[in-house]
Model the fold of this input.
Amino acid sequence: MSKLPPGPPPEPVLAVGVTDVGRVRQHNEDSFFVRTDLGLYAVADGMGGHQAGDVASALVAGAMERFFEDSESPTLAPDYVDPEDDALPHGGARLAASIRHANDAVLAGAKGHSERRGMGATVVALHIPPALRAPNAAPDALATAAPRQAFVGHVGDSRCYRVRAGSLEQLTEDHSLVNEARAVDPTLTEEELASLPSNVITRALGLEPDVRVDMQVVEIRDGDMFLLCSDGLTGMVSDLEIAEALKLSDDLLEASELLVALANENGGIDNITALVVAAG
Done:
């Protein structure tokens, strides 16, 4: 089990993640990062077998971080801007553009490497723009002219949940065969849906030059927490179990470790990553 410390000091501890290989796989293809200085948090789940999956998820993480480090200007690189971003505030458009940049990075990383052919990754990311101080305000005063916003972007079946007042809400919808079948025919029974392969995803980074990024804008309230995770967690642990586990500890590292431990106790058939962000 490996752990990434929260962002560089002197930033406060806002997020902690834990990733684990699980009980069946021989190597870990998940990657995640915490950048409290950028207000950026992400989990990527690699696909493509030994080494290729590792490479894909690492490329996603690295590309997104670099994009944010280089894109503080309100003007974003046009290559990564989509017309759908016009309705988003700058922070949301920036996050969506960083995911498209990561898609290009995975495609470029596969070129000239036969062992990486077909590699890809899912990703779920959260951007919480750092709160700004009002002009001439006291050192501990934060601007409160508008509610704080968070931006959630994802491709694939890695998920984002929000915990508010003890209730767990899944914010993302899996890009999966099961979900697409449900959308096409809402009359399908749970038994019929269960007969479909549960691990087939319909969207991922690194498969096509153009990728559609699902984006959400959510308001942050006092006490809100977010959970970013790979399907190695949600495939093993129910939403009810996740909610109960997050209620057991206010310590973010302890909560992340407990979620990973539960997934392993329930079989641990995939790599497991849980990243908990205390946002409100």
